[in-house]
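Quick review question:
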């Protein structure tokens, strides 16, 4: 009887894990289908101005390519962050980290801001634990505060790999958080 119960529980657990893996696989497949439908024709691409040595324009423009890349990706998944790509790139440049960081974390934490606490504008799980929910007044405020926090609390302390960041950001993760963030880095780059 004990062996039967053990095997039943094990089988039930495996079925649940398989179901969850299938659900995640279908969600990833849907995202990939959405990305494939984007128009990448040369007439739809933004051209970049010629490089002028010694002239650096700190103003972020869609012609930069990074903001356009983010916007394509975020629009394809219907994320409200697609309207804030210039600010995301500006903050990344200001604080000296890869422009994909905030979006990759938002993808992992809230499916690109689709699943956030009501009226929180908090796509990053920033200061959300137990019954505590950190709220921002807008996505822009959230981007700026989280960006500054990433710089101050992680990068300035030498935490620069996804695994290093994960150990502090979400210490209970078994590595899946870092894996997912890296996965979304690649998806954003491919868009």
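Suggested answer, residue by residue:
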């Amino acid at each position: 009887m004990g062996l039967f119960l053990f095997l039943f529980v094990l089988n039930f657990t495996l079925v649940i894990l398989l179901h969850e893996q299938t659900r995640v696989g279908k969600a990833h497949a849907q995202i990939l289908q959405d990305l494939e439908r984007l128009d990448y024709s040369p007439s739809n691409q933004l051209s970049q101005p010629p490089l002028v040595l010694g002239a650096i324009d700190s103003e972020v423009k869609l012609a930069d390519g990074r903001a356009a890349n983010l916007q394509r990706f975020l629009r394809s998944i219907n994320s409200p962050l697609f309207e804030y790509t210039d600010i995301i790139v500006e903050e990344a440049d200001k604080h000296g980290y890869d422009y994909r960081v905030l979006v990759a974390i938002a993808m992992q934490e809230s499916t690109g801001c689709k699943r956030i606490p009501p009226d929180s504008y908090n796509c990053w799980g920033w200061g959300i634990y137990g019954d505590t929910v950190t709220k921002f007044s807008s996505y822009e405020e959230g981007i700026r505060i989280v960006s500054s926090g990433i710089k101050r609390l992680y990068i300035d302390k030498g935490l620069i790999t996804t695994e290093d960041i994960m150990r502090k950001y979400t210490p209970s993760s078994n590595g899946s958080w870092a894996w997912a963030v890296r996965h979304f880095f690649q998806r954003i780059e491919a868009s």
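Why it works: The CA atoms of residues 87 and 140 lie 7 Å apart. The chain has two domains: 1-37, 61-191.
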